[in-house]
Amino acid sequence: MPTTPTTVHFGELLMRLDAPPAERLVGSRSLRTSFTGGEVNVAAALAGWGVPAAVVSKVPEHQIGSACLEAVRGLGVDVRHVRRGGERLGLLFVETGVPPRPGRVVYDRLHSSFRGIEPGDVDWDTILADASWFHFTGTAPAAGPGVRATLHDAIAAAKSNGVPVSFDCGYRRALWTVEEAGDAFRELAPHVDLLIGSERDASTFFGIDATGGDAAAELQSAYGIRCVASGHREELADGRHRYSALVRDGERQHASRVHEFAVVDRIGAGDALAAGLIRGLLQQHSLDETVEFAVAAAVLTHTVPGDVARSSVSEVEALARDERRGLER
């Protein structure tokens, strides 16, 4: 049992199936399996950095559900609050791109166990009574009205227990419309302490057309959010990426340096950014240290296959200090 308060993460657990490197989903004769989900990726990164983390979800009562829980438990994440039941585990099919061909993601998530969660299924007051943080992404409310209602109960319990709440917009157009997401995001925003998104998210879902720190300041003012973070990505013609982030916490603001690097797998990089921000805010690091660590964690996650940040604290800190070991600014 952890001796320090646990971060709690609510979201869907998925099986990820990857075509072999450089192959297309159509024509591939084998698919590599792993288990993923935006919230559990954040939880696993934090657990790997010594910050206790638990996931709240639902998986089916069969061998695939058990394999999923075994894999998540193996990442150091507490799965005691994952319910069992329902029809199936959601699927995520991935085709890795090779420039100039983009990657492709195909979801198969209808009728999944997670979508069957209803208010009353989760004892949030007990789970969050001694928690240090509560996190979710935009794919959770996308899972349907029952999950949305359950999420609202979670946020209410977090607030009553003094637990900070973070929300990573993470919009996926395959799951719901822009209009549906915008309605849900605007309803959720006033209740979160940390909002993570992009300038496009600010414009598309919140009607804020400013850029950079001005967009963050307007989001803070409009919704009463303590801390707003935005990631910035530029894809170069040769397939390399440039990545950075800006965070505004109260009146303080910090823009990270820009990293330029080759990409192996970009899925999960935003989750590593979120995990780095949560770690820094929890441990009361300076804003610049928090942002540079979070961005470095995201950059390193791009360089290995799979969704989960596999880099140690010392590796992330080295890159954050610009000890690049072959990575270029």
Please explain how this structure is put together.
The chain is of the alpha/beta class and 329 residues long. It has one domain: 3-Layer(aba) Sandwich (UDP-N-acetylmuramoyl-L-alanine:D-glutamate ligase), CATH 3.40.1190. The protein has ten helices and 14 strands. The strands form two sheets. Strands 1, 4, 5, 8, 9, 10, 11, 12, 13 and 14 form a ten-stranded mixed sheet that branches. A four-stranded mixed sheet has the order 3-2-6-7. Helix 2 links the parallel strand 4 and strand 5. The longest helix is centred in the middle third of the chain and has 16 residues. The radius of gyration is 19 Å and the shape is globular. The relative contact order is 0.12.
SSE layout:
Blueprint (H helix, E strand, L loop, with lengths): L6 E4 L3 E5 L13 E5 L1 H11 L4 E7 L3 H12 L7 E3 L5 E6 L8 E5 L15 H5 L4 E5 L7 H16 L4 E4 L9 H11 L5 E4 L1 H8 L5 H12 L3 E9 L5 E9 L2 E4 L3 E3 L7 H14 L4 H15 L11 H8 L9
Parallel strand pairs: 1-4, 1-8, 2-6, 4-5, 8-9, 9-10, 10-11
Antiparallel strand pairs: 2-3, 6-7, 11-12, 12-13, 12-14
Helix pairs in contact: 1-8, 8-9, 9-10
